[in-house]
Amino acid sequence: MSLQEQIRNENLQETRRPPRQPGRLGIFLESIKFSHSIFALPFAISAFFMAAETPSWALLAKIVAACIFARTAAMSFNRLADAGLDTKNPRTSSRALPAGQLSRGFMLGATIVSCCLFALCCWRINTLALYLCPVAIAVVLGYSFTKRFTSLSHLVLGAALGLSPVGAWIAVRAELDLLPILLGLAVAFWTAGFDIIYACQDHDFDREEGLHSLPVKIGTGRALALSKLFHLLTLALLGGLGYQAGFGPFYWGGVGIVGLLLVYEQSLVKPDDLSKVNLAFFTLNGVVSLVFMTSVILETVVS
Prior knowledge:
The protein is built from 14 helices and no strands. It is mostly helical and about 300 residues long.
């Protein structure tokens, strides 16, 4: 057999092999949408640069780790709490727990370990962060139950993500100020706005199961209108933050781009057409957070 024939046969055998299946860690990271840490993390990094006169990279690493562990705990617990509902919902029935790819024990263990690591990060940051650690854990875990009794669950999720810049500021200065509160509120309304969009696709299922959401309570059309209002509030709060901090063109240019992205995001979804929810929810919101972070870093470091 010639060398060329041997190579051709090896290539043919390679194409016939079944694709490599992800390991349990890969399944877990996909289940909790680990890549979506990009939603809240850039706002925490933004707050870090706003608060730090001389950035400490070691402290930034602790803040990033704390944010990742808090989100991992929140998502692991959410998948555990919603496993029964996810099994019934055609949109979510292929998730790791309903599909039997991961066990409830594994997800519970991931939640406990992540909470412990988050607490360790808080302890290593400063005393105030450690004292507030139980509050943060209560909010990020408690969100998973809110849609069972209130249609304002979107705002609770917003509060959970809004804690990230507030926590980062506390990590740097060991005190609270108006600037992180404004940024935290902006993140909260931004999150609530896009979570309403995401919830529209489960309108029928949530209503049948007796779950609460704004699309169920007031209808998809009015809920999307409220989502627009929340995003307007986001821009107003970011404007107030920029004014209060005395920021210059880098910041305002970034906020302008964020505004355009939010307008585009809102234009993608209509009450009778939810086909572009994933683009509006996943892609654009990641870009929003990265654009804002870049503008703050340029404003605080370069200018």
